[in-house]
Amino acid sequence: MTIHLSAAIERFPIAGNFTIARGSKSEAVVVTVRLEQDGHVGHGECVPYARYGETPQSTLAAIETLAPAFAAGMSRSELQQVLPPGAARNALDCALWDLEAKRAGASVAVLAGTTLPQHIETTFTISLGTPDGMAEAAAKAAHLPLLKIKLGAPGDAERLGAVRAAAPGTRLVVDANEGWHPDDLPVLLDICAHCRVELVEQPLPANADQALTEIDHPVPICADESGHALAGLEALVGRYDAINIKLDKTGGLTEALAVAARAEALGLSIMVGCMVSTSLSMLPARLLAARARWIDLDGPLLLEQDRPDGLAYEGGMISGAASPLWGG
C-alpha cells in the first residue's frame, strides 16, 4: 500500500557548546522523516555524522531517493537490504516502526516484544574543557546519579581528578572519543580505576585498537566507533568488554535489537547511546534500556529546547511512560 515519504533538515541550538576530542558544535543538525499511509503518520529522526562520512544533505538525498519505493509499499525488511547501516536508514526504519504501531493501535514496545522500565537512569554529559571548567560543571550536576565525562586530549588525568573531587559520590563513565595513545593507555586506565570510573568508552582510534588485547582492563572498555552493526561484532571480543549501541550506527531499531541480542550472546555488556538530538531520537533507543547496563540518552538535555511532547527527565531519570511523539 502506498506510503507518502517526506523529509527535512532541522536545527536545534545547543545550550552553550558541546565539545569532544574531535571538536565543538553549537547546534544539533538532524534529518527528520514523515511517512503517511491511510491517515496514519510515522516519524523518525537521525543525526548524520561526519566521522562516518555523512552530511545532512547527503543523508536527506539518500532518504528522498527512496520515495518511489515507499510509494510502492516498501517494508522494514526490504529497507534493510536497500540501505546500509547509518543515519538515513535509522530515520526511515524508526518512522516505519512508528507507522506500524499507529496502524496496529499498539505500542512499538509491544510490536518489538520488549518492555520499558518504569524509570530509566541516564548519564548526563560533561563536555571536554579545562579541569576547572569541567569540575565546575560536574559540581553543578553532582546530584545526578551518573555522569559521562568527555576526555581525549592532553591533561586528561588532571581533568578526571578534578571531576572526581567535584563530584565525589557520583558514578562516572568516561568517553575518550578515540583520543588516547596506546603508550598512555595503561596509566590512564589505572587513573580511571583509582577514580572509580565504571566504563571507558573508545579510548583508541577504531583502526588502531589492537593494543586493547595486550593490556589489562582494570576498568571495562566499551566500543563505540569500533562497533557499528551486526557485521564485525564478533571481532570486538577480546578487545572490548562492552558495546555502545546507537541507532544512527546500526541504521535503526530493527538492527539495534539484533545487535543487542548478538552482543549478549558474545558476552559483551551493552551501553545504549545517542547523538546530540531530540526526544524523537531517544524514544526508539529507549526500547533497548531493559537490556543495557549503561544508558546514555541525555541528548535533549543538551539542547536549548526539545520537541513538544518530548521525554520527561527528572533527577537523571527518564520516564518510561508512553509518548505521543513516537511509538505509542
TrEMBL record:
Cofactor note text: Binds 1 Mg(2+) ion per subunit.
Pfam families: MR_MLE_C, MR_MLE_N
Zinc in keyword set: no
Keywords annotated in UniProt: Isomerase, Magnesium, Metal-binding
Domain (Mandelate racemase/muconate lactonizing enzyme C-terminal) ranges: 131-222
EC numbers on record: 5.1.1.-
SMART domains according to UniProt: MR_MLE
Required cofactor(s): Mg(2+)
GO MF entry, a single one: metal ion binding
Active site: 150 (proton acceptor), 246 (proton acceptor)
InterPro entries: DgoD-like, Dipeptide_epimerase, Enolase-like_C_sf, Enolase-like_N, Enolase_C-like, Mandelate_racemase_C, Mandelate_racemase_N_dom
Family: Belongs to the mandelate racemase/muconate lactonizing enzyme family.
Protein name, per record: Dipeptide epimerase
Source species: Devosia marina
